[in-house]
Design brief:
381 residues, alpha+beta, Trna Endonuclease, Chain: A, domain 1, 3 domains, eight-stranded mixed sheet, 11 helices, binds zinc ion
């Protein structure tokens, strides 16, 4: 922890600009106490970890969340404290919110509203996150969670990446304004924010994303949000999407050779088409596509097969037909329904004849869709 009380009850905050020697001198003549449990604290001044307070022995001062705090967490918390202080906002470090018995890393007052800031370095159970959010919600506070930048993107300078986002990471994706949802991450070691935005689901937990970095000294209040992807970035997102689609279609044949029962292959067989020859209108990132864990080409082909089997066209489908189809898939049915409906909209808009798999074998629907989605998103503002 970075806060303590002195013998006379004064609250002290360890900021970055206190030098180590004067801190060592200070602790000779001062005793420090936990603002929480009032036990005496040790002021640790070392060369590796930034100066911090610690309880003398293991304690049941549980609301402090402080013991076992990693050096990275301490460093990040301290840098974020400096950031808000620099913008002359009222900011409290590790304040204890009595009513909900929670201690956010920071509590910033922005235009009369208190905003808890949580810098989350370790992976904790999602229920803990929900519990803390529920606590803040009881106080009418909307927290900002910033997670530690995943190792995989820390040293990357690429603007467009294909990455896996764990369920834990995905739970911190937030919409800060009406723009693209954002995963806000921070790396104290390089003092950089890494933004993950403009996500396009590929399959499972893999996404093609835009990745933008911002040095803490350039960060604004409220936090900056990433601009729309450039034309070149949209091309690159398209390339990542097409690469993943092709890779899946090439590999799916192998599933059969391994004797795995596969609905996708069976549907291809029944429609007399090789997976790799699927027309360009099957496997497109229509709105809501992330509701399916499967790659788009898989659920979209199965949907086409189901419509053909019922001898219908995209013009004749109602929600009940689509709901029946969705039953076979894991996931959130209401969101999957939206994905199916937007795929139907796309087929109607492009006047696709689903009984002609030899049409539009090439064509760049993916690029059109992504450009439309991301540019429209930003034009609204
Ligand atoms: Zn304590």
């Amino acid at each position: 922890m970075l806060t303590a009380r002195t013998a006379v009850g004064e609250l002290v905050v360890l900021t970055m600009n206190k030098d180590l020697d004067s801190l060592r001198e200070w602790r000779k003549n001062e005793t420090f106490f936990c603002p929480q449990c009032n036990q005496q604290l040790l002021l640790k001044v070392g060369d590796v970890v930034i100066p911090h307070f610690a309880h003398y022995q293991h304690t049941n001062c549980r609301e402090s969340f402080a013991e076992g705090e990693s050096p990275t967490h301490l460093l990040g918390k301290s840098q974020l404290f400096e950031l808000f202080s620099r913008h002359t906002l009222e900011v409290k470090l590790e304040p204890f919110l009595k009513d909900v018995r929670q201690r956010p890393d920071l509590l910033v007052t922005w235009r009369g509203t208190e905003v808890p800031i949580e810098f989350q370095c370790s992976v904790i159970p999602l229920t803990d996150v929900q519990q803390r959010n529920a606590g803040y919600s009881m106080l009418n506070m909307l927290p900002i969670w910033i997670i530690l930048t995943p190792q995989t993107i820390r040293s990357s300078s690429a603007t467009i990446l294909s990455i896996r986002l764990s369920q834990f990471q995905q739970s911190f994706i937030r919409q800060f304004d009406h723009r693209s949802p954002i995963l806000l991450t921070y790396n104290p070691l390089s003092k950089q924010f890494h933004y993950i935005s403009h996500m396009v689901h590929l399959k499972g937990s893999t996404y093609a994303v835009q990745h933008v970095t911002l040095h803490v000294d350039e960060q604004t209040i409220p936090f900056a949000t990433p601009a729309a992807p450039s034309v070149a970035d949209i091309h690159e997102l398209t390339r990542h999407y097409q690469f993943a689609r092709r890779k899946y279609l090439q590999s799916v044949i192998g599933y059969n050779q391994r004797g795995i029962h596969n609905r996708f292959l069976r549907a291809c067989y029944e429609m007399r088409i090789q997976p790799i020859q699927l027309p360009a209108w099957i496997g497109v990132p229509t709105r809501g596509q992330e509701a399916f864990k499967q790659p788009d080409c898989e659920w979209q082909l199965l949907l086409i097969a189901a419509i053909r089997e019922a001898r219908k066209t995209p013009y004749q489908l109602d929600a009940s037909f689509l709901r029946m189809f969705i039953k076979e898939f894991d996931g959130e049915p209401d969101e999957q329904l939206i994905a199916c409906q937007s795929f139907m909209d796309f087929l109607r808009q492009e006047r696709i004849d689903i009984y002609r798999l030899d049409t539009f074998t090439s064509g760049n629907f993916v690029h059109e869709i992504l450009a439309g989605r991301f540019l429209a998103m930003h034009a609204k503002n």
